[in-house]
Amino acid sequence: MRSLLLSSLAALQALVVGLPQPQPLSIPLTKRSTLRNADGYVDSASIRAHISSTEAKLHRGTAAFERNTGVALSPYLTKRAGVLGSDPLIDNENSTWYGIIKVGTPPKTFSVEFDTGSADLFLSGSSCGASCSGHTLYNPNSSSSSEDLGKPFKLKYGDNSTVTGNQYKDTVSLAGFKATAQTLGASNISDGFSEDRADGLLGMAFETVSKYGANPVFQTLVSQGAVPEPVFAFKLASSGSELRVGGVNSALYEGAFTYTPVTKKGYWQITGDNIEINGKEIANEFSAIVDTGTTVVLGNFSYVSQLYAAVNATEVDKGIYALPCNAMPNVTITVGGKSIPLSAETFNMGPTDSSGKMCLGGIQGFDFGDIASGQLQWILGDVFMRNVYTVFDVGQCRVGFAELA
Fold it and tell me: Could you give the count of Cα atoms lying within 13 Å of 255 in the half-sphere of its Cβ?
């Protein structure tokens, strides 16, 4: 009997090994909008609005971290969150990367922004009304796997617009991998959700910054064993952009990854080595967030002022600088011992007027509080990420960088 049992177990193991294993899958990404006006010029007011939106997102997540853990992620940002009362889930006019997910049973397709700087899934709901016109709407009554959690929410964000709605659990498919009983929010009323945005937002940071106090979608996939590896990766570029789920795409990078650990498990927060402009060091041993939801690189006002002073740039708005379009500086950000130069194409945000002589730089100022505090000082957004292949490793709590192929 024992030998028969052992033979059966061996046969079962051989069968399992022989079955096809899940493979990483990709979601193509599209850039929905830019920070330029209809004439193709960079509008400093649009950049300022984008910075305010990022600030709102950061403050709200910081407040959620303290509520969820009882620990202050950043004392300065927690204090500011109470003052602003704004929310990250809906951005003002900015540049965002979006792709397709499926939600519910039967599955319904939605376009969402993928944001490593927040943690929650938010969709426009079936009761949203005219403010959600032009969007695919989530109707929990049309999904057999939907569960009403009986938890309303009300969000206020940068321009004083509001979103109210309810929380649900439902099945969410990301690149074909299914997360069951995933918490999401569906809006009932939104007075600031225009037609030129995606149907919602999918946060990819950690549970500790979740407004809902729930696992983000990817962490749910990991906990349910739905993905082959607990990692996802981004290539952000003018073409061929993608989110890789459950692994990396070896066709999109060259050489080995350089990894650096997450220092605080809320955002994808790491410690960078240094930032240089034309060979002059501006910052070293700095704390930063790697964020797909931020178009530019944001730094403490003091650092950014020093950076642009090195090339005699002109401040056109607080923390926003212009310099000659044909004289973009050599800026390098070093992380984990790997130097990542920012190309002139990515650093140059575009011309300020029809003369085409002056352009805005892609590093801009932000109020992070006292530099001496040792707190977060930089956000490494698209201007940085478009120069490197980036992998987010949930399993080992680290971020990796490799050369683009």
Answer: 13
CB atoms within 10 A of CB 115: 25
Asked if 87 contacts 56 with a C-beta cutoff of 8 angstroms, the reply is yes
Catalytic machinery residues: 115, 291
Alpha-carbon gap, residue 210 to 9, rounded angstroms? 43
Q: Write down the number of H helices and E strands in the chain.
A: 7, 26
Kindly list the distances between the CA atom of residue 52 and the CA atoms of 55, 257, 259, 298, in Å, as whole numbers in the listed order. 5, 33, 30, 11
Total residue length of the chain? 405
Q: What value, to the nearest 5°, has the Cα angle with vertex 268 and ends 368 and 157? A: 55
Q: What is the pLDDT along the chain (405 residues), one digit of tens a residue?
A: 445 544 544 544 544 445 556 788 999 998 765 677 767 788 777 788 778 778 778 877 888 888 888 887 765 554 443 333 222 223 333 357 889 999 999 999 999 989 999 999 989 898 887 777 788 999 999 999 999 999 987 765 544 556 678 999 999 999 999 999 999 999 886 655 554 468 888 999 999 999 899 999 999 999 999 999 999 999 998 888 999 999 999 999 999 999 999 999 999 999 999 999 999 999 999 999 999 989 999 999 999 999 999 999 999 999 999 999 999 999 999 999 999 999 999 999 999 998 999 999 999 999 887 555 558 899 999 999 999 999 999 999 999 999 999
